[in-house]
Amino acid sequence: MMGGWNDRLNFASKTTAMRAWNAARTYTSYQRSRLTGTPNMAGLPISISFEPTTSCNLRCPECPSGLRSFTRPTGMLGKALFQNVIDQLAPSLSYLTFYFQGEPYLHPDFLDMVQYASRKGIYTATSTNAHYLTEERARLTVESGLDRLIISIDGTTQDTYQSYRVGGNLDKVLEGTRNILAWKKKLKAKTPHVIFQFLVVKPNEHQIPEVYALAKELGVDQVLLKTAQIYDYENGSDLLPTQDKYARYYQKVDGTYGIKNSLDNHCWKMWHSCVITWDGKIVPCCFDKDAHHVLGDLNQQSFEEIWQGSAYQDFRATLMRSRSEIEMCKNCTEGAKVWA
C-alpha cells in the first residue's frame, strides 16, 4: 500500500494562488474570531460537501438514511443547481466531497457532476458502499477524474460485514474494488486514490489486522480506521468497541458514558466548510443529518450571500458564546479522535 503521500501530492498540485489566498484569509478570520469572541468571516469555504441523494440500498444502524428515519424531504440533487454553485465557488474552492447521507452511485448523473468539478481543477472525493461499481461504472469513475474513493468495508467476512452493513454483500464490495483497481491500471491513471474505510465497532474490531491484509492483497492504496458515532451512547451500546482507543466515548465512574473531547466554544468547521443538501439547503456540518439548522437556500440566494449572511453569523456567534446550547454539538467529535 502507498499510504497517503501520492494523494497529498495530488491535492497540492491543484492549489492555485487564489485558493491559497482564500485558505489563508479563512484561517486568519477564524483565529481572529477566537481571539475577539466575535465571528468574523473574510473568505469563502475551503471545502464543501454536496449530497447527491438521500437514498441508500443498505440499512445500517446509526444512519438516518439506512433507518429511513429522515424528517426532512428526501430526493436527488439537480445538476443545474450543482453546476451553478460550483461555478460560483470554483476559483476559491479546494476540496469537494460528494457525500452527506445516502449512496452517491444511486444518482444517475453522479459521475457527470464529478467530471464537471474535476475539470475545474477541484479535488473531488466520495464515499461509497461499493455495491454499484460494475465494470462500466468503475471505468466511468476513473475517467471522471475523481481524486479519492472511500470504500466502506466494515468486516472481512460476510457475517461480520453484514452485522453493521445490513443488507450488504461483501463479495460485491470486493468485486467493485477489483473493478476500480483494474480500470486504473488499464487506463494508466493515478486516481482515484482508493481507501478502505473500516468503521471500528465491537462486532468487527477483531478483524482489524485482516482488513489491512485484504487491502494489501487487492492493491488498495490506504486503510483508514474510523471511530463510530453512537446516537444514544450515555448508557452504553453493543457497538462500542472494547478497545478504548477505537471509541469516541469513555465510561464514567457511575457507569454511564460521555464523549471524550471537551465542548469548547469554537469550531473550525464553521469557517472552512459546510454541507449542501440535495435540495440546495446549506447546513453547518455533517452532524446536522436532518437539517435542523438551515442557514440558507441556494435556490433563492447566492452562496456568498448565505455564507456572509446574518443567519450564518448568528449561528457562529451562538457557537462561540455557548456551544452546549446547540443540540447536535453535544455528540460532536470536533477535537476528539475520529481516525484511530
TrEMBL record:
Spell out the molecular function terms from Gene Ontology: catalytic activity; iron-sulfur cluster binding; metal ion binding
Name the cofactor(s) required for activity, per the record. Answer: [4Fe-4S] cluster
Q: Pfam families of this UniProt entry?
A: Radical_SAM (PF04055), SPASM (PF13186)
What keywords were assigned to this record? Answer: 4Fe-4S, Iron, Iron-sulfur, Metal-binding, S-adenosyl-L-methionine
Q: Say if the entry is tagged with keyword Coiled coil.
A: no
Which segments constitute the Radical SAM core domain?
40-264
Source organism superkingdom: Bacteria
- Indicate what this protein is called per its UniProt record: SPASM domain-containing protein
Organism in which the protein naturally occurs: Dawidia cretensis
